Amino acid sequence: MAKITFITSDGETKELEGSSGSVMELAVEHNIKGIDGNCGGVCSCATCHVHVRPEDMEKTGPGSEIEMDMLELDDNTDEYSRLSCQLPISDAIDGVVLTVAK
Amino acid sequence: MPDPFENARLKRGIAEVGNQNDPVQLLLRHKDVRKTAHNYKTFKSGAKPGRIVVPSEVNIRETRQIPFELDPPIHGVYRAAVEPWFKRALQSEYAEKLKVLIDALIEESLEKDSLEVIEEFALVLQSRALTLLLNIPYEESETWISWGTHVFRSEETALDGEKAKILYDYIDVQIDKALKNPGEDLYSVLLNTEVEGKKLTREEVKGVMVLTFAGGRDTVINTVTNAVAYLAEHQEALKRFRKEPEIIAKAVEEMIRYFSPLTQMGRVVTEDTQVCEHAIKANTRVSLCWASANRDASVFENPNEIVLDRQINPHVGFGFSHHNCLGAHHARQIMKVLLGTLAEKVAKIEIFDYKENIEDLDEFKRKVGYDYLKVKFHKTID
After folding, report:
1. pLDDT tens-digit map of B10-23
2. Are the Cβ atoms of B314 and A38 closer than 8 angstroms?
3. How many CA atoms lie within 13 A of B280 on its CB side?
4. Between B250, B314, B316, which is nearest A40 by CB?
5. Number of domains observed in the structure of chain B
């Protein structure tokens, strides 16, 4: 079980709990604004972009090369960017705080 | 479906194709295609209407397709204005209506000893589903079915102005009707849509409608037809969808990658530049070859195979960046419901006869689908 906090672009904070699937799926299931997951989680649409709180980067780790290539062409990408479809939910990411990208 | 671009993609990364005295440099590598699609300043969409389409449509239309033939930042304003309507396809109510429509079509098809997939199935499905996207009565699909498989193209010539005129005249009549009797259909909604404080003009409404009709016709028809052919040749896939319906969404993405329903989309170059070490002159055309990028082995493992549950699939089958497909939600929903319903009702598909539709791009001959595909659907036994 992992507790994940989302901060949306209108400043709303939502705390969710999940035990399987991806962070994107959890967010879509709970209608987190700004996370669409159009491609269903295969890393093709970049509509699930989040910024990981810097101190949580250790928990999530960096993205794969394919994911980073995808993010490279997003104008709002920074060093804490990840595609949430590529973040599997597990105990390892318990407590992370994610800000939904614009 | 073979990949005609492999050799050129590996060796050169770029290839010139002639077209109506306005040749096009095809960009073939995944990375170049994505970067170029993103760089709207050097590679623009807001050129003369029809010029970014390959083959060019400059001689058959003047209406600017919107938001497709605009560039940021104004592109984003128009896109944001129309996008919510196209996102209706994500709602469960929309999916349920599609399911009713696809259930009925498959039931009809199961009764036939021989089914010609393009005319009797894919075109009918595309047309009926379009009534949902436009939110207009189901009966209207009869008119579109009667037009045949292509709006812009016909059997005789690649670009047929007469056929395009049918669509333009039709849309004009529909806009007039919506002006007189506004309803809850897309025409009426667009006529009431404001962009930067001003209502869309009639020409702009027409531009959105032409895009909606033209962009989602051949593409959807070819995807549906290719999917049926694939399922006929891979009977185990239907069984797998029955057992593991959770992979269907991934299978849809994979089919979009593998079939690449739109081979390419052009851009007009605004300044002398370079792509993968090739000089490109201002005011010439390049094209983003989605079909080639989607088979790039540096990105996709086993690119020439359909891997139904492919986990990482950064395909560009719906385009990429600012101009990614506006109708993608609708298309994905059609394909998800279609694959699920075929798995539910059809045990196997038998092919009797077919003729491949090969697109001719000078040195490249690309199979895009079929001219005809005759099959029989066999029922599942409960």
Report:
1. 999 999 998 888 99
2. no
3. 27
4. B250
5. 1
